[in-house]
From TrEMBL:
InterPro entries: AAA+_ATPase, ABC2_TM, ABC_transporter-like_ATP-bd, ABCG_dom, ABCG_PDR_2, P-loop_NTPase, PDR_assoc. Keywords: ATP-binding, Membrane, Nucleotide-binding, Repeat, Transmembrane, Transmembrane helix, Transport. The keyword Kinase does not apply. This is Pleiotropic drug resistance protein 1 isoform B. SUPFAM superfamilies: P-loop containing nucleoside triphosphate hydrolases.
Length: 1268
């Protein structure tokens, strides 16, 4: 088992990918990798080797056990079975009788058809996941297991399979040291028992984890600096003149000794002048070192292939048979549909509402068969049914996109072929299509009064089922092509626009330009629409012949709209829809098979100067822990005697820095604090009777200025919970006990002004730079009395302190995708809080996800912060020895939210060690062992049961607890002459300044967020050109009724589709910023209204540009009348329509917890708005009881404005089905649009935009969907 070490961006991930045959084939690489002498093309490397990703991608709705069971089921038992057969043969030969227990276990594990249950349970136990085995995994919006548990699950997914070589990338992120130790230890057992190979890269391995490994590979600047046995690594560096100090973890030493900033402190030969040794020089020296020489010799001799057991390398592509894989995927898909039952039930109820609306709008008693115009209404009803059924599949798109990252992981590990993933989704949705379409057809068919013959009823049902299948397959295909929500939505909306325009209803076949005829013949909606109208209008009820006519009315209606009149077109339509369904599903499978996940563009920024100066570069910050050591000696006397640390503000200055804003130091005390939540339903189902689940059981303590306190405990001990309670960040639950600030009762409004909270997941706006993030934070959080110059100087000071100066102009980016690295984001999180000049700072796991060197940098910054006289509390997961000992005090908690040690650490953790060693039965600490790891090990729940003691009780009866209570009591009384915190206003800045600051940030974010702004612009421009070419010059030649309807169709498609696209595409933007908004609002930066105001205002110019470009292109190409008034009316209504939809999208996102739900909720409104838009059924023909809704519909008002302004005053004659009339009269009689009503229409459409924006603002203020 090999440990891979190296600083960030040294090439660890690339090396692991190359060894696991997972490198991007587009990359050029040389050299070869062999397994047992076999090259990669002689076996299936993806199934012989498993790469465990550092990102945790899982299906959020599955439980831990289900995820592992699925993984085991598809990967199969693999070679365990072959090995067992070989083992029993050898046992018989050698006459060995195995241990019966082991024998049963081994046989049970390896027996095929055993559903891999035993393996799953075994891995759950090894990884310590039994407690959460039946908990769902969850995601940002769905509460599930913790980050550490997700990390273990990612590892477990690969362990349940039969792979022999494991390549694990940074698996310890977010885990405490004892959990990391357990995982690595369990992997070691697997490797040694099953004779496997494991290469594991870790960020901060503790000494005991480090000692588990056999070999070490040390990477730096893409060079292998050392590779060989763990025992010889220090010897190698000693030969180079570098020595690892005592009480320093070897792993930390190895990562720092190649770094330019830290190398000098390890130079051992003080007689010789020090010079920086580069990675290349180390690498060359290693070749001549005895370990390197033996490695070269080993590589020179080829591995004897005949010694490789045939079962060692996998030659089958998949673990189990195709039918088994299909069944496994099918059962998982079925389970997910059950878990998503709310979504599907909601869609059904939405469809029922739409059906109810449709049947009451097109009610039989109101529907006549006396003229071609009456037939047109029936055509509208059929078209509406088609559109509703088609668009009801739209949420499929976002659901398919959200599951792609998990699919790519499983596909690349050869869990199953693409078709096994794609087919179950299709087959299970067929049944749902029958149900959904059944609801629609059974409700609407006879009530609307379609042809009563039952055969025609079932034929319509068949067409709509096929339309539904075609649409679902199309959206899945688009999702697999787009692979990313914004791109997929844009593609989806573009496809919808083309399909609608080419359906034969919006634009009649006879008017389609010859260059667009191919589009008409290729459009699946055209076949669906033709089959529907053909089925209806060739029925008995439409066979009567009107006076002055020679043909049946049904044929006349079909002719007037350009539909086909032959009865065989029904079956052509059905055949085409089946063909398209198969085509799109096949396309989906191909896209899944051949397209790779969207690329990750990551610029890694080196912050070290590259020149190899004689003295090893700049002296500044040479010793990462120098400040820590310096301040330890300063503080060991200051804070540990239980005395209050006080002093005037002037004494609190940064070490060796020029200027700092004055602040008042504050202590925080808490006495008997409790926190409980309502008992989760899952636990009630398991028979728990209590109403409340208690997470904190009466904890007490004090945090003081100038004292750095560590909050520590195993995963689930309540560290973050306690911090959230103290900081006032909990959004639910029941808090009890006393919390005081400098002796006065804590009030959240004033407390937010003097405190900072660094969250574990570094949440920042992705499209602003580092410097802008700090400027924004200081602008909103520092007192307005501080002038701009001082503020900027202070920001520079903070950037110097947290070492962010080289990164000032770098965009923050998305975590793990673009912009800053994890460690740089962590520093930015701290800086954003520091520029607010707080007195008390809470930090949630500031070192998780960082390598040892980065963690030391962050800790140096934390230490510097404490030295300014601030009160700092950090929760910490897996500290190395020197990081742990840089803390002054420890607040240790055990599972269940009770404190078991509160007090000073002492020099080399002496106080802590002597306290626990004094408890009977606790084993002594080994020399050189990390005290942090030791204390977690000796106090875990299994040790408590073994010793039969409760550490919380032991602490309550100790002298230490008594001293703690005294300190809490002392600090809970206000100091003489002190005053309670008071601020004249809740926020630092005025309402106007909050608005300006938020607008400033939104402006920068939007300008750089080209994926949103540019895509919207490109989409509307492309659609303008498409519609312009489809409806070329149709606006000017109005001779027949159909010409007017065609011109209207062009407006309808734009109003509906660009509008809906705007609404959909703004939702991810609002969702991403909303998480940042929750953090900033909790920090007391602004109230919700200025934020909403900025978000609303920033859309105005972008939508204006979109509307102007769209209007100019379409107006010219379709050939509307060029007068200033008419053009400006057109632009006005288009602009406000786009704006309405954008604000509607923002509003729907603000009132729902996540994007899925908001897209489903808004879809229902779109279908209602669509039917009452005035195009499918004109307003005078809508029954009286529904007419009010067309007045409450923004699309109807947009259509009113566009049609009335263009055609409401034209006096020229036009041929209609009722004879000749003027355009103005036809528009007035058929649509009910009057030209002199335009002023009112303009006011109403503007009012809609204002109302949606207001509801958005109020919702942001009222609703908080973040559960803490």
């Amino acid at each position: 088992m090999t440990l891979l070490l190296g600083p960030p961006s040294s090439g660890k991930t690339t090396l692991l990918l190359a060894l696991a045959a997972k490198l991007d084939p587009k990359l050029k690489f040389s050299g070869k990798v062999t397994y047992n002498g076999h090259e990669m093309n002689e076996f299936v490397p993806q199934r012989t080797a498993a790469y465990v990703n550092q990102n945790d991608h899982h299906v959020a709705e599955l439980t831990v056990r289900e995820t592992l069971a699925f993984s085991a089921r598809v990967q199969g038992v693999g070679t365990h079975y072959d090995l067992l057969a070989e083992l029993s043969r050898r046992e018989k030969e050698a006459n060995i009788r195995p241990d019966p227990d082991i024998d049963v276990y081994m046989k049970a594990v390896a027996t095929e058809g055993q559903k891999a249950n035993l393996i799953t349970d075994y891995v759950l136990r090894i990884l310590g996941l039994e407690t959460c085995a039946d908990t769902i995994i969850g995601n940002e919006m769905l509460r599930g297991i913790s980050g550490g548990q997700k990390k273990r699950l990612t590892t477990g997914e690969m362990l349940v399979g039969p792979t022999k070589a494991l390549f694990m990338d940074e698996i310890s992120t977010g885990l405490d040291s004892s959990t990391t130790f357990q995982i690595v230890n369990s992997v070691k057992q697997c490797v040694h028992i099953l004779k496997g190979t494991a290469v594991i890269s870790l960020l901060q391995p503790t000494p005991e984890t480090y000692n588990l490994f056999d070999d070490i590979i040390l990477l730096s600047d893409s060079h292998i600096v050392y590779q060989g046995p763990r025992e010889h690594v220090l010897e190698f560096f000693k030969s180079m003149g570098f020595k690892c100090p005592e009480r320093k973890g070897v792993a930390d030493f190895l990562q720092e000794v190649t770094s330019r900033k830290d190398q000098e402190q390890y130079w051992a030969d003080k007689d010789q002048p020090y010079r920086f040794v580069t990675s290349k020089e180390f690498s060359e020296a290693h070749r001549s070192f005895h370990v390197g020489r033996s490695l070269v010799e080993e590589l020179a001799t080829e591995f004897d292939k005949s010694k490789s057991h045939p079962a060692a390398l996998t030659t089958k592509k998949y673990g189990v048979g195709k039918w088994e894989l299909f069944k496994a995927c099918l059962s998982r898909e079925y389970l997910l549909i059950k878990r998503h039952s709310f979504v599907y039930t909601f869609k059904l109820s939405q469809l029922s509402v739409a059906a109810f609306v449709a049947m009451t709008v097109f009610l039989q008693t109101e529907m006549h068969r006396d003229s071609v115009i009456d037939g047109g209404i029936y055509v509208g009803a059929l078209f509406y049914g088609l559109v509703v059924i088609m668009f009801n599949g739209m949420p499929e798109l976002s659901m398919a996109v959200s599951r792609l990252p998990v699919f790519y992981k499983e596909r690349d590990n050869l869990f199953f072929p693409s078709w096994a993933y794609a087919l179950p989704a299709w087959l299970l949705k067929i049944l749902m299509s029958f149900v959904e379409v059944g609801v629609w057809v059974f409700l609407t068919y006879y009530v609307i009064g379609f042809d009563p013959y039952v055969g025609r009823f079932f034929r319509q049902y068949l067409v709509l089922v096929l339309v539904k299948q075609m649409a679902s397959a199309l959206y899945r295909f688009v999702a697999a092509l787009g692979r990313e929500s914004t791109v997929a939505l844009t593609l989806g909306s573009g496809t919808n626009a083309t399909l609608l325009a080419m359906s034969g209803f919006v634009l009649s076949k006879d008017n389609i330009k010859k260059w667009w005829l191919w589009g008409f013949w290729m459009s699946p909606t055209m076949y669906g629409q033709n089959a529907m109208v053909n089925n209806e209008f060739l029925g008995k009820r439409w066979r009567h012949i009107l006076p002055n006519s020679t043909e049946p009315l049904g044929i006349e209606v079909l002719r007037s709209r350009g539909f086909f009149t032959q009865s065989y077109w029904y079956w052509i339509g059905v055949g085409a829809l089946i063909g398209y369904t198969l085509l799109f599903n096949f396309g989906y499978i191909l896209a899944l098979m051949y397209l790779s996940p969207p690329g990750k563009h990551r610029a890694v920024l080196s912050e070290e100067p590259q020149s190899n100066e004689q003295n090893g570069g700049s002296k500044k910050g040479t010793n990462v822990l120098r400040h820590i050591k310096y301040s330890l000696s300063q503080h060991s006397n200051k804070g540990r005697k239980g005395k209050r640390v006080s002093g005037s503000t002037s004494s609190h200055t940064l070490p060796a820095s020029g200027m700092v804003l004055p602040f008042q130091p504050h202590s925080i005390t808490f006495d008997e604090v409790t926190y409980a939540v309502d008992m989760p339903q899952e636990m009630r189902d398991q028979g728990v009777v209590k109403d409340k689940l208690v997470l904190l059981k009466g904890v007490s303590g004090a945090f003081r200025p100038g004292v750095l306190t560590a909050l520590m405990g195993v995963t689930g001990a309540g560290k973050t919970t306690l911090m959230d309670v103290l900081a006032g960040r909990k959004t639910g639950g029941y808090v009890g006990g006393n919390i005081k600030i400098s002796g006065y009762r804590k009030k959240q409004e004033t407390f937010a002004r003097i405190s900072g909270y660094c969250e574990q997941n570094d949440i920042h706006s992705p499209h602003v730079t580092v410097y802008e993030s700090l400027l924004y934070s200081s602008w909103l959080r520092l007192s307005p009395d501080i002038n701009v110059e001082t503020r900027k100087m202070f920001i520079e000071e903070v950037m110097e302190l947290v070492e962010l100066k080289p990164l000032r102009h770098v965009l923050v980016g998305f975590p793990g995708v673009t912009g800053l690295s994890t460690e740089q984001r962590k520093r930015l999180t701290i800086a954003v809080e520091l520029v607010a000049n707080p007195s008390i700072i809470f930090m949630d796991e500031p070192t998780s996800g960082l390598d040892a060197r980065a963690a030391a940098i962050v800790m140096r910054i934390v230490r510097n912060t404490v030295d300014t006289g601030r009160t700092v509390v950090c929760t910490i997961h897996q500290p190395s020895m020197d990081i742990f000992e840089s803390f002054d005090e420890l607040f240790l908690m055990k599972q269940g939210g009770q404190e078991i040690y509160v007090g000073p650490l002492g020099h080399h953790s002496s106080h802590l060690i002597s306290y626990f060693e004094g408890i009977q039965g606790v084993s002594e600490i080994k020399a050189g062992y990390n005290p942090a790891t030791w204390v977690l090990e000796v106090t875990n729940s299994s040790k408590e049961m073994e010793l039969g003691i409760d550490f919380a009780e032991v602490f309550k009866n100790s002298e230490l607890c008594r001293r703690n209570k005294e300190l809490v009591k002392e600090l809970s009384t206000p100091a003489p002459g002190s005053k309670d915190l008071y601020f004249p206003s809740q926020y630092s800045t005025s309402f106007f300044m909050q608005c300006m600051a938020c607008l400033w940030k939104q402006h920068r974010s939007y300008w750089r967020n080209t994926r949103y702004t540019a895509l919207s612009f490109i989409y509307s421009t492309t659609l303008a050109v498409l519609l312009g070419s489809m409806f070329w010059n149709l606006g000017s030649k109005i001779e027949k009724q159909q010409d007017l309807l065609n011109a209207l169709g062009s407006m309808y498609v734009a109003v509906l589709l660009i509008g809906i696209k705007n609404a959909y595409s703004v939702q991810p933007v609002v969702a991403a910023e909303r998480i940042v908004f929750y953090r900033e609002r909790a920090a007391g930066m602004y109230s919700a209204l200025p934020y909403a105001f900025a978000q609303v205002l920033i859309e105005i110019p972008y939508v204006l540009v979109q509307a102007v470009v769209y209007s100019l292109i379409v107006y010219a190409m379709i050939g509307f009348e060029w007068t200033v008034a008419k053009f400006f009316w057109f632009l006005f209504f288009m602009y406000f329509n786009f704006l309405c939809f954008t604000y509607y999208g923002m509003m729907s996102m603000a009132v729902t917890p996540n994007q899925h739900i908001s897209s489903i909720v808004s879809t229902g409104f779109y279908s209602a708005w669509n039917i009452f838009s005035g195009f499918i059924i004109p307003r005078p023909r809508i029954p009286v009881w529904w007419r009010w809704y067309s007045w409450a519909n923004p699309i109807a008002w947009s259509m009113y404005g566009l049609v009335a302004s263009q055609y409401g005053d034209i006096k020229e004659n036009i041929e209609s089905t009722d004879g000749t009339t003027t355009v103005e009269d036809f528009v007035r009689s058929y649509f009910g649009y009057k030209h002199d009503f335009l002023g009112v229409v303009a006011t109403v459409i503007a009012a809609f935009a204002v109302v949606f924006a207001l509801v958005f603002a109020i919702s942001m203020k009222m609703f908080n969907f973040q559960r803490r």
